[in-house]
């Protein structure tokens, strides 16, 4: 009797939960109403079966409860009942699966007038490539990927020269224009998913997969990597902004072609040294850093990282938080560098300086720190030497007080929160695995203990 009541209450609770819970699909922003319909049909079919079977079970438990005057019959076969059950189950399963087949047929038939966009996944970042005027993407290969050619485009392929490159993690799309999204991975499995568009697909290293959709609502949508296997895919976020025609054209015009990214002015180290004179008072004559000025070591950091940080300071992406007094100082100083060329030159100059051995030892437990650092080594490297492919800077050789302050800044949402900060968000999520100050001390001490190799 009690069990029958519990089962009935369970059914009622489930139904109430289903109808009042706030967790449901985000509002649809693409042509894929059909996918919602399919899911709804499935939900109705399994929902009705769930209610019917559960109530029947409760009824049977109640009706045939123990009675000492009653004897049970043994009736293993009942072909009439089995016939009905088989028929109803078949109809239910067919009702669930048939619509899916039609939707799948649509899913794999890309409309003729689709534009092509390539989405490239890597641990843990998205970038994009458009075919340019000729409408064709150039050939690519993983083994020619380098700092100057991060997409690995074949220089000898004539179709590649006018490809438009989007190194940021924000892709723009034109409203009501169907797009075929080609998916490529530089390293491991990833998964392209935009909840509002409903479509999702794996990125498989060595293969090119695709999805298509037509964005139907203006807006900025989050692109998620919904890959479960492996680590940190949840940190891999991007954005898709659906634009009006004029906004889209403005964005297109701002993109460099592959050919343009290859023809950069040569680096001028002497100029870089010149620009650095304004920085010496804080960062030291050899870029070794200065605790009294709260200024970190810059010598030996990689060019791409220095450039990115300087551009972030200049564009007020880093150092704008009202609690970030040190970042604000630096942000003001970044005005000493007049333009992009100055940023490149000073970064190359700093990179050419030998990094000094860091002697400041923190008070943490190195053994515990080593264990914690395992989580960091995927990005920052086993020796904290930094890793261009992961966008993660060198940490070895950096002053302990600075490392500690940065981890704290990430944890408190002082650094890495600006919407245009493409890489800081990963670190915010990662910094949270260090639960208390002791853990931060431990991991910083371990980084401190690593030999600072260039
Ligand atoms: Cu991923």
Concise summary:
This protein is α+β, with helices and mostly antiparallel strands. It has helices at 2-20, 33-63, 79-107, 245-253, 258-262, 269-276, 280-283, 303-314, 325-333, 340-352, 366-380, 400-411, 424-431, 437-449, and strands at residues 115-122, 125-130, 164-166, 170-174, 179-185, 190-193, 200-203, 209-213, 219-225, 237-243.
- What percent of the residues sit in helical stretches (DSSP H or I)? 40-55%
Strand order, main sheet: write it out: 3-2-1-5-8
Structural domain count? 3
Provide the β-strand percentage band.
5-15%
By CATH's scheme, which homologous superfamily of the largest domain applies? Cytochrome c-like domain
- Which structural class do the helices and strands define? alpha+beta
CATH class of the largest domain: Mainly Alpha
The profile of the biggest β sheet is: 5 strands, mixed
Mean pLDDT: 91
Count of helix runs: 14
Bound molecules: copper (II) ion
Shape: globular
Query: What's the architecture of the largest domain, going by CATH?
Result: Orthogonal Bundle
Describe the structure.
The protein is of the alpha+beta class. The protein has 3 domains: 2-18 and 26-63 and 83-107, no CATH class; 115-262, Sandwich (Immunoglobulin-like); 269-449, Orthogonal Bundle (Cytochrome Bc1 Complex, Chain D, domain 2), CATH 1.10.760.10. Helix content is 41%, strand content 12%. It contains 14 helices and 10 strands. The strands form 2 sheets. A 5-stranded mixed beta sheet has the order 3-2-1-5-8, with no helix packed on it. A 5-stranded mixed beta sheet has the order 4-10-9-6-7. Strand 1 (115-122) and strand 2 (125-130) form a beta hairpin. It is globular and about 100 Å long. Bound molecules: copper (II) ion.
């Amino acid at each position: 009797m009690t069990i029958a009541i519990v089962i009935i209450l369970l059914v009622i609770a489930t139904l109430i939960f289903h109808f009042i819970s706030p967790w449901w699909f985000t509002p649809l922003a693409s042509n894929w109403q059909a996918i919602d319909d399919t899911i709804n049909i499935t939900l109705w079919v399994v929902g009705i079966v769930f209610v019917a079977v559960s109530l029947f079970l409760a009824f049977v438990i109640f009706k045939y409860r123990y009675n000492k005057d009653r004897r049970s019959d043994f009736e293993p076969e009942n072909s009439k009942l089995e016939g009905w059950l088989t028929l109803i189950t078949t109809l239910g399963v067919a009702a669930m699966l048939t619509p899916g087949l039609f939707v799948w047929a649509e899913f794999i038939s890309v409309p003729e007038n689709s534009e092509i966009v390539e989405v490239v996944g890597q641990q843990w970042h998205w970038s994009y490539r458009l075919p340019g005027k000729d409408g064709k993407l150039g050939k690519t290969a993983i083994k020619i990927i380098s700092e100057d050619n991060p997409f690995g485009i074949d220089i000898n392929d004539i179709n590649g020269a006018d490809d438009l490159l989007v190194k940021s993690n924000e892709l723009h799309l034109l409203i009501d224009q169907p797009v075929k999204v080609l998916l490529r991975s530089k390293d491991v499995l990833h998964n392209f998913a935009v909840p509002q568009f409903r479509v999702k697909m794996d990125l498989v290293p060595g293969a090119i997969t695709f999805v298509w959709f037509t964005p139907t609502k203006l807006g900025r949508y989050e692109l998620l990597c919904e890959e479960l296997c492996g680590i940190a895919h949840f940190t891999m976020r991007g954005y898709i902004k659906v634009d009006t025609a004029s906004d889209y054209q403005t964005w297109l015009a701002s993109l460099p072609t592959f050919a343009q990214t290859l023809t950069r002015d040569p680096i001028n180290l002497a100029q870089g040294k010149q620009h650095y004179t304004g920085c010496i008072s804080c960062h030291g004559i050899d870029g070794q850093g200065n605790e009294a000025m709260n200024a970190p070591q810059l010598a030996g950091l990689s060019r791409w990282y220095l450039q990115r940080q300087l551009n972030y300071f200049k564009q007020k992406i880093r150092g704008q938080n009202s609690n970030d007094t040190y970042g604000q100082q630096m942000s003001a100083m970044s005005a000493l560098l007049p333009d992009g060329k100055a940023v490149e030159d000073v970064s190359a100059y700093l990179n050419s300086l030998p990094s000094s051995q860091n002697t400041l030892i923190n008070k943490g437990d190195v053994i515990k720190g080593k264990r914690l650092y395992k989580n960091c080594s995927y990005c920052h490297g086993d020796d904290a030497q930094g890793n261009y492919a992961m966008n993660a800077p060198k940490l070895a050789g950096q002053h302990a007080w600075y490392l500690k302050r940065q981890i704290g800044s990430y944890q408190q949402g002082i650094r890495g929160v600006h919407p245009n900060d493409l890489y800081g968000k990963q670190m915010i999520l990662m910094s949270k695995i260090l639960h208390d100050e002791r853990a931060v001390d431990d991991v910083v001490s371990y980084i401190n203990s690593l030999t600072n190799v260039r």
